[in-house]
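[scheduler] slot 2 assigned
[scheduler] job type: sequence-to-structure, two independent chains
[scheduler] chain ordering preserved from manifest
[runner] begin chain α
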Amino acid sequence: MPEPWGVLGIVCPETHPLLGFLSLVLPAVALGNTVVAIPSARTPLLATDLYQVFDTSDLPGGVVNIVSGGRVELTKTLAQHLEVAALWYFGSAKGSEMVEKESAGNLKATWVNYGKARDWLNPAQAQGEEFLRHATQIKNIWIPYGE
């Protein structure tokens, strides 16, 4: 059965800051996760201005949390945090390596791009089942059969 991760950390890409933010955060929220998002460091106000939209919508408080600041330090903190169940990182190859290394200690699920560019304007790359699949984990339910 697919089940939400719970708390999902998302480090958004530097290119196409608003579209990248929305393409990553919305599928995660739609499938029942709470999100801690680090927006693009170049233009964080594009994402933080969305707080007004979230406040006036039916989205419960605390479902989307936007943290701006030093990208490397915040990413490392999310990777090491025990309450964050999964982490998505869209950035450099070095950053992807750091995320996987720092997440290994608490067996956090990661989805990184290893520095490969993604075309956020192409619907085939910026939306779809791939994002929904990574927003859930598969839980097995064992049903006893017979004696």
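[runner] end chain α
[runner] begin chain β
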Amino acid sequence: MFKRLTVAFFSTGDELRSVGETLAPGTLYDSNRYTLFAMLKRLGVQTIDLGIVRDDRASLNDALRRATQAADVVISSSGVSVGDADFTPELMNSLGDVAFWKIAMRPGRPLAFGRIWSGPRAGTGESALFFGLPGSPVAVMATFYFIVRAALLAMSGATHKSTLRIRATCAGPMKKRAGRTEFQRGIATRHDDGGWSVVTTGPQGSGLLSSMSEANCFIVLEHARSDVDAGDEVEIVPFDGLI
């Protein structure tokens, strides 16, 4: 018997504003929180939206402790890179255990994972699993679907099902650097003979939400793979049933 999972989430950034607020110079809307809410609700978990947390140690420390007291899993977006205001990895070391920080994935390299506690030191008080996601919107979605989602389903007691992957022929070339797994956004087409072809949505910057909204699949380019030529075969993961 599994209880319904509770997930707390928040975004970090002094420049962020919620939808409906007026934007001043140097500010932008926080899309990540709304995206996370939609992805979490699709999984049927209980959600706690902690809003936007300021870029300072005290605010982030307080948010992490409050989230840990209330939830089984805590998810943040932004604050896990190497900038002056990225305090998440540092606080994770003081509040808990860091299993890993940074992965060979694009988009989504600066991803932190571990367990944190609400007490004055690691190992005291309530505990929760923590996922520190990147700040770029597409990186948030990619890391959620290929890393966080599987963990939440397992914790909810769901039977593991491998993500559907289909072989497709590339209709155009794709740039790829060996040494990391890439999840490019693509438009896949099924042909009369049952085969599939795929082309990217265009520029693949991790801040381009249009690369997701115009796509119907992820194009999975393996860790060791380099540039892809037109006519090469790749694997795709359809959005249908996933997003």
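[runner] end chain β
[qc] chain β: The CA atoms of residues 46 and 151 lie 15 Å apart.
[scheduler] slot 2 released
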